Amino acid sequence: MNTTDLPLFSELYTCYYQVVAKILDEASRQVLTRRQIEDLAQKHGYGESALSIVPRLIEGEWPFLCRKNTVPPTYACALKHPLFPQPLTRLQRSWLKALLSDPRIRLFFTDEQLTTLEGYLSDTAPLFRMSDFCLFDQYKDHDPFSSVMYRQHMHTILEALPQRRFLSIDYLSRKDRILTRTFLPCRLEYGQRDGKFRLYAMSLTKTGRQRMDILNAARILSVKKTNSYFPFPVDVDRFLDNAFCQEPLVLDITTKRNALERAMLHFSCYQKKVERLKDSNTYRCTIYYDKRWETELLIQVLSFGPVVKVLGPKVFLDQIKERVRKQALLMDQDRHSQTTP
């Protein structure tokens, strides 16, 4: 098959490859309904994956599935041979080698795991180095990612998260008071602009009421495991709904320059809804966000340039216009200074 017929498959082993591979693997075991295919696309892809992938598979644009004469229609894998293996390419190895130089990656791996990775990639040159980047839109007081104590705290939190295990935490508040409390870690979030990890942690009040706190990981002085576990998953968004802005951010995102996929990655930490506009290559994205992170979200939206159009709310749109106006003014001043003798 000519790869020009597969516009979504423009990069090797992308998310769309993975989603289609999951669907074909399941369809080789049993016939699937359209609903089951959509569920697989939603589970293994982004929010818009089902909108982009399923119609092409079902309608035969990508002839990987064969339709069965059943009611409702079902689909089976059309491939005669097992799915091909996916060894790492030199580019992927080089990219992984570059990631190992980022101090943040050490927060998610043990020393043994890092040693294994570094040994596997010992003969590979990094795709880039951290010194190659000049970041001008971020604060400089990032979390101490290289700190031994900080790393130990993060490892303990990451281990407790999937276990729903309570932790005893000593925390330095913004008023420089040390608070000791038992928390259930529920979600870990990273702010790209300020370079800080935030921990959404639930605690129980004296009256038994559940309360959600947001802790700066760098302000945690000590963290210890307890023998207590929470019996079921915590819906963090339910606690945060009250902190959301009354009007969500509404964007129109085109498919140019991989904008949709990049947007889903950039806005992955936000609660959102994505839908494809009828007879258009544009997607409507509605983002529900906490007022405290509005400035960070504003900068993220601006970074997309003309491939993203802000529809509202008016307060957010006015801030976008003001920042663009100031940037244009600075550029005019810079050009004027260069031409003035």
What does this structure look like?
The protein is α+β, with helices and mostly antiparallel strands and 341 residues long. It has 4 domains: 75 residues, no CATH class; 43 residues, no CATH class; 94 residues, SH3 type barrels, CATH 2.30.30; 78 residues, 2-Layer Sandwich (Alpha-Beta Plaits). Helices cover 35% and strands 24% of the residues. The protein has 10 helices and 12 strands. The strands form 3 sheets. It has a 5-stranded antiparallel sheet with strand order 7-6-5-4-8. Strands 10-11-9-12 form a 4-stranded antiparallel sheet. The longest helix is centred in the last third of the chain and has 26 residues. The chain starts with 14 loop residues before the first helix and ends with a helix.
